Amino acid sequence: MDAQQRMDEMLESEKIEAIMRAARPQVAVIGVGGAGCNIVSWVKEKKGGVSGAKLIAANTDATHLSIVKADRRVLLGEKTTKGMGAGGYPQRGEQAARESLEQVKKDAAGSNIIYVATGLGGGTGTGASWVIANALKPTGALMIGVVTLPFAVERFRYNNAKVGLEHLRAQCDTVVVLDNTKLAKVAGDLPLKEALGVANELVGEFVKGITETITTASLINIDFADIRAIMEKRGIAAMGVGEAHGDDRIERAVQSALDAQLLDIKDATKAFGVLIHVTGGEDITLDEVTQAGEMITRSLPPKARVVWGARVDPSLQGRVRVMVVLTGVESTFLAEHPSAVTRILRARN
Ligand SMILES: Nc1nc2c(ncn2[C@@H]2O[C@H](COP(=O)(O)OP(=O)(O)OP(=O)(O)O)[C@@H](O)[C@H]2O)c(=O)[nH]1
Ligand SMILES: [Mg+2]
Known about the structure:
Layout: H1 3-23, E1 27-32, H2 33-47, E2 53-59, H3 62-67, E3 72-75, H4 78-81, H5 90-99, H6 101-108, E4 113-119, H7 124-136, E5 142-149, H8 158-171, E6 174-179, H9 180-186, H10 192-215, H11 224-231, E7 235-245, H12 249-259, H13 265-268, E8 273-280, H14 286-298, E9 305-312, E10 319-329, H15 332-336, H16 340-348
Parallel strand pairs: 1-2, 1-4, 2-3, 4-5, 5-6, 6-7, 8-9
Antiparallel strand pairs: 7-10, 8-10
Helix pairs in contact: 2-7, 2-10, 5-7, 7-8, 12-14
Bound molecules: guanosine-5'-triphosphate and magnesium ion (MG).
Magnesium ion binds near residues 61 and 122.
């Protein structure tokens, strides 16, 4: 190879690198309220962040915010709540968010995918998350809400959570809903603090797994266009996760992802799109990934649109993890407990 050829090749690879960088979607994860900030913090601390994503923690509670790990921290509504939290009042969370929208917009600027993560039921997350999603909507980013529902013992928070979910659904392309009560059951009736940790981990894994399958070279990559196709304007999504090791690990992981009561199987047959995400240690094989895809698609309606990706995570050595996200499903929570807002909207139609 002569000098000229080497030069040409160098220029070409620089060009490819530059185009790749420009084509890679920018991602922002905004954790809102106590739970949302804990989720962001979990990802940052336990997982070293998300490659290609900015982690933003937003809360009205200054004390909590001071211990949160994130790339950016935003104190919401300094005047409204004086750094003392929204005290369980979503209206206060809403007002606090409005006061601080410029800062949030600045921090999330240039993002193509925005995740808004929150625990519904309190004041800040419930009131501020949809206001933030609404303010960022004009950027044209794909807006994905990821929320947990209150525990059964927090029944008094159900109505707030319902109203918050309805508002957020109206502002997001898709809202992935996880029920804290079901989550705790699947996790084996752990004490509250540990059950919350499991919830944070699950939401964190969802955000990190999917984002990195788009932004970094993976075993099987997912395109931004694929994600858009199944998430854009799809309403509610449900999610299941299964993990296994040893013999027939992939079958067992798929089975528990589909069995986990996190998913309502009645809804599964109505799903518009399915995202299958497989993670394994260095020893995972392409055969296993294919097998997972086949098993899951077999249990779904043939017209469902399927997107799948796979990634190696060396820390999973010997284990495989399968995550299934069903988009365009109905929320049993909203259907079973229509809130005042739903009743008013229904009466109007
Ligand atoms: N996944 C998860 N859920 C949590 C966590 N902490 C609380 N929750 C749930 O999230 C709901 C809202 O709680 P917080 O996030 O503390 O409330 P907030 O949004 O900060 O609202 P205020 O404190 O009233 O301003 C609770 O009712 C719980 O169901 C957590 O660390 N992780
Ligand atoms: Mg709080």
